[in-house]
Predict the structure.
Amino acid sequence: MRARLIAGLILVAGLALSAFDRAAAAPVREVRDGFTILSGDFHVHSYPDGLPVWEAAREARRRRLDTIAVTSHNSMLSWWLWRHAPWMPAEASTVIVLPGEEVTSVWYHMAAVGISRPLPWRQPLEASAALARAQGGVGILAHPGGMKKVLTDAGLSAIDGLEVAHPEVDWDEETKQEHVLVYRRALALHPTVAAIGSSDFHYLRPIGLGRTYLFVRDVSADGVLDAIRAGRTVACDGGGGVYGPPRLEALVSDRCRADQTSPPEGNIPLERAAATLAWIGAAALVLLGPSSN
Amino acid sequence: VSPEIGLIVDPRSTYSMLARRPVALSPAVALRRPLLVAVVSGVALSIAATGRVTPGLVLGTTLTWSYWVVAQIAVAIVLMRADAARTVGLARAFDLFFAAHAPWSLAVLAIAAWGPAPFGRPFWPLWPVIIAAPVLTIRAINAFFREVLELDPRAARRRTLAHQVLTCLLLLAYVWMTSSITPRLLKLFAEW
């Protein structure tokens, strides 16, 4: 009984300690040539295949992201949950959250961002991109590495952006080269196609590992979508590599490296201590069980 | 040794011993082990996704993912209701059944501790845990049906199989809905 009590107290102590973590600082936004530079991740899964959406937004702020799109597979459930969230952490409300969907089709995946209704998946890429645009949104081809043989010129001409940086590219050079080849092919067909970096956040790898810097005229959802349509973006991969128009790349390459190598905001030693305590308490409770009966 | 550790080491004799103990449980107290499963999942998923355990994060994750515990409760009720009434009572049977969840809870905690790594830390050290969890669970559930619900070996095996099939079907249905499996399968067939 005593051991169970101690295990429970260790778990509670971890949670309580974590409550003393400091909040992420208010974003400091750099302005260059009349454009504000924002950092975004347009491929974020939240509940039902990730964290609760308000927690995903809070985590985004902690990882120095200004905007995210919530992209459930072939549904907009995450967006619905965001709009009907039972509570909203203060840090989450400072992030521009965009409605979205990961259109999961047979031969392509596309993050449709800024849309108002889910798109059907039984259609070619160009039709999905056109439908996203008709709803005032944008179509971003997701993790295109393995799709290079089936992607058509019509599809690549129709999209507004392409995930050239995705955590897949951090794992092996061949995948990275495939992504870059598809990006170059799209660029040749559509010179303002936006270079996008996304994390495809679910669990186990952090949100913002793969992120996009946007040069926006105004800090709003419309400003973000305008920047993507105009191709005023730079993709940043998990290793600090940048992809996009060379003039813009030069403006954010240092920031990309810094963002990908710096710890998240907050008191990291305290967070680690709290998580370790909670983990030990939980594991001990599992092994001891809630009762000897 | 706790019931949970006993069920990992020797499930039949542990369940046999536990079933003989006269323990009267209220339905509310019988929810203690499912509740622990939900909280452990909330802690593990919070750590896996963010490395943090703020109370709001753990609470939100626990609540939003508790549907999976509810699904397991539903499966347990379907499979044990009639026989539990005849043996140890539904509340007690329910409590003992969830004691067999420890291997999966430990696996989820192990994944949360080791898994999060941006640049491909090898996943293979987790494979023994991921393989051991279902093996130990199946062994314990089979022992539960034999020793607690007093089914004969053949009926216990059938009931264990039914439990695994129902659980896998529920999981598959969930993944199907949230991850859009239909187009992925169509792609597989087309490539094949």
Notes: Residues 44 and 108 of chain B are 6 Å apart (CA to CA).
